[in-house]
Amino acid sequence: MSDKTQNQKGWLFVLPVVLLVAFNALIPLMAVVNYSVQETFGNNVFFFEGMKWFGQVLHSERFHAALLRQLLFTGIILVIEVPLGVIIALSMPRRGPGVSVCLVLMALPLLIPWNVVGAMWNIFALPDIGMLGKLVNGMGIHYNYTQQPIAAWATLIAMDVWHWTSLVVLLAYAGLRSIPDAYYQAARIDGASSWSVFRYIQLPKMRRVLTIAVLLRFMDSFNIYTEPFVLTGGGPGNSTTLLSIDLVKIALGQFDLGPAAAMSIIYFLIILSLSWLFYTVMTRGEDRG
Amino acid sequence: MAKITLSDLRHSYQPVPQGDDDWALKHMAMEWSDGGAYALLGPSGCGKTTLLNIISGLVRPTEGRVLFDGVDLTEVPTERRRIAQVFQFPVVYDTMSVRDNLAFPLRNRGLAGPEVDAKVSEIARMLDLEGMLSRRASGLTADGKQKISLGRGLVRSDVNVIMLDEPLTVIDPHLKSQLRSKLKELHQRIARTMIYVTHDQTEALTFADQVVVMHQGEVVQVGSPVDLFERPRHTFVGHFIGSPGMNILPCELSGGVARVDGHAVPVDNAPPGAIEGRVEIGVRPEFVALAEEGDGLPVTVVRTSDAGRHRIVEVRLGEHRMKLLAGEGVTVPSGEARVRFDPGHTRLYADGWLVE
Amino acid sequence: MKKVSWVIPTLYVLFLLLPIYWLISMSFKSTNEILGSFTLWPQKFTLDNYHKIFTDPVWYRGYRNSIIYVLINTVISVTVALPAAYAFSRYRFLGDKHLFFWLLTNRMAPAAVFALPFFQLYSAIKLFDTHIAVALAHCLFNIPLAVWILEGFMSGVPRQLDETAYLDGCGFWRFFNRIFLPTIASGIGVTAFFCFMFSWVELLLAKTLTSVAAKPIAATMTRTASSSGYELGLLAAAGTLTIIPGAVAIWFVRNYIAKGFALGRV
Question: Does residue A2 form part of some domain?
């Protein structure tokens, strides 16, 4: 049961948005599509090659490996960051001086340029000169992320969690704050336990905000480039070569624009379909209004 | 069921209240007896929601005590006060069915399954929600959701008082009167104290046996709808209740005779001596009538508007405006006319308060 | 969840602050010391890094440039997103569901893919090396974000609120500004901050679309990482300084984010 009104003047409201975004999106997109179906031997000379690149990419083992690594990475960070972010948001103060302090401190990791994030964790986690490296090795664990794939993965994930969980926290917190007090009051009057309040009031009301948080983290982590590149360069070996890193290696390193562009498009389609899936699942059965 | 006593209540939202204006609720002492239907009437910001929240325990008063049947519950939290509250906009648990919504307060208190079901069915029947018990609560219209809110208060047999904070605010206009009658009917059936907060006089006057009129943090008058209409104790009450409201004219009092612009006006409550403060005459348009030549006060007719069964005539006396009601068949002159006030319903007010 | 709940945010904040402390302490060390051995705090405390930055006119101009285009972008994004989000939330119109999802798709491609085409596009329309170019380019990913977040919050406001306001005789824009927007204050606060943040940290497009006049900190940030080897101390100092405007930004919107939904008398 939707109680939106049928109103074509809605188009007027969205027009500025459509214009600004489409302007930026369509023209470059066309360029990319262009490249993906052509071959070049340099000198700006292009030959139309049809679906050759797409086929090549889809059958390459290298691509499959990178894709798997990417799915694993994204899966892990989603499972950690979303629940963690919600728990933290639930436990943050609602009023008082603590609020400002919390918000500012939690926002700090988000504000650091991504290459700096990678660089600082690079040093931070080094076994001989980094604080974290020293700490972990000092506890008896043999830890060297430049040599051990598992350690590299752990460091990568720790870095991402450190960097991005606050995004989920801020969204969840804002979502919680927008629940009218009356709901909590009614719950008190009804004698509801804290768990009931969470399950029947807070979680349902946060559903939309959590959908956004999940989608954002999904898309951004799938596209992640700078931080892992500066941290591990994709190594040791290939172990942390995620999709974006692989893509850039191909495009810049081997100067293969065709395959690179085709890869971008396949890549994009994967994200698109998975996002659509996430979106449909999370907003299924939801009533608007 | 309980008698609620408010003693020496004062409340301010400021941590350190300075002047009079910082007090949302100025000094108040009241008793609400068992099972009555009360309305808390007043304009926005007059403190009625504050008072409601103090009674329900959602707000702790700065000063004073709240007693239920003589027991001081001022420090007791809401969940132990045995009250129910319906809010301005519907509060339902979206993910649950109507049945689960109604059962929720009972289940939280550990009642057994069959008992819960029986109570839920009974209340659902009372509220005409029977056919919708299995539906998801979020799918109902606003009035349906408000019924659910109300239902959650009714299912509990230990509820002392049900408080309704402007519950019809978001209801469609044509459903308002239906829901209003339903509330009145419910009150008669369950005989529990109900306190209905509103800024709409129609709602207050149709629902309540006793109306508490509030103005700027104070209780101005408590009385039945008839009392408030016939004998307003404050010009605010006169002005706020009745449509159109009471006419209020500044006057002078000398030698026991009230004069408006020099014209003598007979009043019901002229005191023997002088009166301190600003003196005014209050008379409802219902008690102002057109008079014959030579009788009453001279006025100029400004405007006549049709209000269905009668007409509202706006006249001007010097610089003062007032209204009167003219029934069908009464000719309203244009231009010069004369009006007279019914002396039994014309009264003096000093600084807004009825002179007694 | 009263006393215990203090533990969780405190632990989290400590976890966040550790690497930040590390960053700040690196900024006060020379690159040699950083790479030489592990020191918990600067053994040879030095202000060299900061000195280099502050005496480099390119740097503070870069700082200023970045702030300018980020603010322009934030204002544009939030302003156009508000009516659009309202339309998505309240109205049904032709293609609305698809349009809504399409917006999000613009955030699905890595920015690298757009670098060259953007360069060509903005040069062609003669906006190369202007603040407005970067501000507009960032609209690509910020506007969809803003629309999605705002729509989420707007859908949480019951429709009856709109209708009740109309019944009271409120004009549409008055209703929108005086009543509706304050109820989604936390959504607006968080949206404004995210737009600021994503635009502020975006280095690739910012660098691609500018050269001299509107050169942002992005250029100098990436420069320190490549040309003169790996000047860690300098990078750390630069990184530390870039936190400050963002901290100021969230300070400004903190009250909006934390504002509860107080359904005032309509």
Answer: no
Which of B185, B219, B239 lies at the terminal end of a domain, its last residue?
Answer: B239
Q: Which of B239, B256, B285 is the last residue of a domain?
A: B239
CA C133 to each of CA A24, B250, C122, C123: distance values in angstroms, whole numbers, following the listed order: 11, 68, 7, 10
Tell me how close the Cα of B264 comes to any Cα of chain C, in angstroms. 42
Q: Region B187-191: what's the mean pLDDT?
A: 83
B174–chain C Cβ distance below 8 A for any pair:
no
Strand partners, B25: B11
Say whether residue C164 is in contact with chain B using an 8 A CB cutoff. yes
Cβ <8 Å between B56 and A196: no
What is the ipTM metric for this complex? Answer: 0.86
Contact at 8 Å (CB) between A131 and C38?
yes
More confident residue, B221 or B44: B221
Write out the two tokens for C122: 């903005």
| Chain A hits for C236, Cβ within 8 Å | 116, 119-120
Q: Which domain holds residue B298?
A: 247-354
Residue of A nearest to C242 (CA): A112
Tally of structural domains, chain B? 2
Give the pLDDT band of residue A172 (cuts 50, 70, 90).
Answer: very high
The rounded average pLDDT for each run of 10 residues, N- to C-terminus, in chain C (266 residues) is 72 92 87 79 82 79 87 94 89 82 82 77 84 89 92 82 68 74 85 93 84 74 55 83 87 79 43
Q: Whole-model pTM?
A: 0.83
Sort out which chain B residues have CB atoms less than 8 A from C2's CB and list them. Answer: none
Q: With helix as H, strand as E and coil as C, how does chain C read?
A: CCCHHHHHHHHHHHHHHHHHHHHHHHHCCCHHHHHHCCCCCCCCCCCHHHHHHHCCHHHHHHHHHHHHHHHHHHHHHHHHHHHHHHHHHHEECCCHHHHHHHHHHCCCCCCHHHHHHHHHHHHHCCCCCCHHHHHHHHHHHHHHHHHHHHHHHHCCCCHHHHHHHHHCCCCHHHHHHHHHHHHCHHHHHHHHHHHHHHHHHCCHHHHHCCCCCCCCHHHHHHHHHHCCCCCHHHHHHHHHHHHHHHHHHHHHHHHHHCCCCCCCCC
Report the pLDDT averaged over residues B231-253: 86
List pLDDT tens digits, range B310-349: 888 888 888 888 888 888 778 888 888 888 888 888 888 8
Q: Residue A5 to residues A2, A18, A206, B94, C179: CA-CA distances in angstroms?
A: 9, 21, 24, 22, 20
Domains of chain C, first to last:
1-46 (no CATH), 55-257 (1.10.3720.10)
What are the structure tokens assigned to B8, written together?
A: 């020496």
Residue A275 in contact with partner chain C when CB distance is under 8 A: yes
Residue C263 to residue B142, Cβ atoms within 8 A: no
Look at C158 and B170 and tell me if their CB atoms are within 8 Å: yes
Q: How many domains does chain A have?
A: 1
Return d(Cα A88, Cα C9) in angstroms, integer: 6
